[in-house]
Amino acid sequence: MKEASVPKARGKSFTINDLPDSEKPRERLQEHGAGALSVQELLAVVLGRGISGESVTVTAQRLFDHFGTLRGVANATVEELCQVRGIKLAKASQIKAVFELAGRLESNPDGDKRPVKTPEDAMNVVREQLRGMKKECFLALLLTTRGKLIKMVEVSVGSLDSSIVHPREAFREAMTASAASVVFVHNHPSGDPSPSAEDVKMTERLVQVGQLVGIDVLDHVIVCDGGFTSMKRKGLL
Fold first, then answer.
1. Whole-number Å distance between alpha carbons of 44 and 42
2. What is d(CA 4, CA 11) in angstroms, rounded to the nearest whole number?
3. How far apart are CA 103 and CA 126, in angstroms?
């Protein structure tokens, strides 16, 4: 079968509009729905424009190949995305924004204030935010008087094995949002959710500060890809 020739453009970026109609991801999406498109085609729609002399679908394929999986693309930092030929700051920002929206939808699909009563509830809220994170990330789940989620706040991002958390920062958003209580969550990229001595001391300090400002610390949950530990259930809170 003879291959369809791909138009070449000189001196300008090669966009989706330069492709034959049958190969345009945007038109295929409109005709068949987003579910009919491959991952690479969906990435091409997000990118919108390729580079000089190259179809955006080629750029999208290179992006996917570079990270190996969609999860790899999603977890990449802006700096890592920019290492791929054809991806600069604007496109990298678009990619991060799309995955952030998807993650927020996954963590709160109904857009409502879901109750956070158990560590399992907390895990359901933060799962997408923390999945695959290579650094420790400290989050606060701000709750109403009835234990419903107001919002999730990223307090700090640390190193591979530690996160620096200042109580003032941990409670700032909670006070602004008039939260009645808070559940703290952070990840252990090592894969072991057991609390360290530093985790225990930090939690004790956060509880003390919470008592001073009138915001109850209900739990501190440590998570990893393989599970979680509730410091409340372990009697450490």
1. 5
2. 22
3. 9
110-230 has which CATH code?
3.40.140.10
CATH class, domain 13-105, is mainly alpha
Instruction: Render pLDDT for 180-231 as a digit per residue (tens, 0 to 9).
Output: 999 999 999 888 889 999 999 999 999 999 999 999 999 999 998 878 999 9
Q: Within the chain, which residue ranges are assigned CATH 3.40.140.10?
A: 110-230
Produce one character per residue of 179-210: b if its CB has 16 or more CB atoms within 10 Å, e if not. Answer: bbbbbbbbbbbeeebebeeebeebbeebbebb
Count of other CB atoms within 10 angstroms of residue 91 = 23
In the block, which residue shows the tokens 């709160």? 108
What's the predicted TM-score (pTM) here? 0.57
CB count, 10 Å around CB of 69?
11
> What residue ranges of the chain are covered by domains with CATH 1.10.150.20?
13-105
